[in-house]
Design goal:
The chain has about 170 residues and is of the alpha/beta class. The protein contains four helices and nine strands.
């Protein structure tokens, strides 16, 4: 297992989710196990349909695990550290994190239409489409083509944090 972790950041509607989905699909097509962590800072994610059993269970305030033949879903009523999340995933080749700006992982910032300097300090690479002029990208950041998923995966392979088994101090 590769156990590489990388984070993606950027303004709303910049294309973070689309890029992560594209990367995940390509990696899985080649047989890699991919895990994704999405930060939901406004608590707006909905994990089940209102009125269904698992939703009713989660409304009690209890932690709930739903087990089915093809998946396990965890409804936890408290925050978890990234190291605890990695323990849950156990084996993976790639861990793709959307958001969590303070997490010390190699980070790709995604921009379309306009750069936001607030992201530069925490960014290792910037992925843009042709709406951004390359000369406006800081020299301290690698420039990646947002539409060239293969080159972004190559960057992740070279720069992703290697997460050792049972030793999560790298994160």
């Amino acid at each position: 297992m590769k156990r590489l972790a990388v984070a993606f950041t950027g303004p709303s509607n910049s294309g973070k989710t689309t890029l992560i989905v594209n990367i995940s699909n390509i990696l899985q097509k080649y047989g890699y196990k991919v895990c994704i962590v999405k930060h939901d800072p406004k608590d707006k994610a909905i994990f089940d349909v209102e009125g269904k059993d698992s939703w009713l269970f989660s409304q009690t305030g209890a932690d709930v695990i739903v087990i089915s033949p093809n998946k396990t879903t965890l409804f936890k009523q408290s925050n978890s550290s990234i190291s605890k999340i990695v323990e849950l995933f156990d084996d993976f080749d790639y861990l793709l994190v959307e958001g969590l700006k303070t997490l010390p992982l190699p980070r790709i910032a995604i921009f379309r239409e306009k750069l936001d300097e607030n992201y530069f300090e925490m960014t290792d690479a910037i992925a843009t489409d042709d709406t951004i002029l390359k000369e406006n990208i800081p020299k301290s950041c690698i420039h990646l083509d947002l539409n060239n998923t293969k080159s972004i995966i190559e960057w992740i392979d070279k720069n992703g944090n290697k997460i050792p088994y049972k030793t999560l101090s790298v994160i």
